[in-house]
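Escalated from tier 1: coenzyme A holo job.
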Amino acid sequence: MGVLVTRDISVRPYQPADDEFIARVAREAFDEFTPRAAQHTLDMARHFRTMLAVRGETRVGFLTYSGRSGDVYVVQAIAVSRRERGRGIGHRMMQAFEALAHAEGGRRLELCTADCNLAALDLFLRRGFRISRRRERFYERGQAACILVKDVQG
Ligand SMILES: CC(C)(COP(=O)(O)OP(=O)(O)OC[C@H]1O[C@@H](n2cnc3c(N)ncnc32)[C@H](O)[C@@H]1OP(=O)(O)O)[C@@H](O)C(=O)NCCC(=O)NCCS
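Tier 2 regenerated the structure:
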């Protein structure tokens, strides 16, 4: 499904002008987990490294991550604009993240998502992540989370 639709999608680094988009999509995606979704996600986007998925000038998604060569690369947040979901954009950003971690000498990939988040679990499990552990009441609104990991292929 994704391949045809994501042909016109590219991934570029974060710019401060992306803040309004990130705040809007974070509210859409994460309000159900935390009352501080927009501010918390913006703080992470500025503090860690962030990539934006764009179609021409139009922003469609973002992925924030941390990592150091020889160590673990962590997806801190990933979200796609609601009307753009299910078209392979999440897959495309994960591909870019994994390629970058590999190029920089990352050893392992890690991320965390709600255990009730079928769309996210489906995306990550199909990309070869496995569930390493579960954490009860991880989110501010009480949902449990799964930690998922994947070794970087040499
Ligand atoms: C999780 C998320 C980033 C996925 O992005 P996306 O662009 O919709 O994902 P893709 O289109 O690349 O889909 C990847 C796979 O997930 C599956 N998928 C997508 N939406 C789905 C849904 N609502 N339910 C079940 N599976 C779904 C698709 O089958 C697809 O597999 P395929 O390419 O073999 O068909 C997006 O749903 C989102 O922004 N959710 C809100 C934020 C979030 O939950 N982030 C993750 C936790 S940090």
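DSSP finds five helices and seven strands in the chain.
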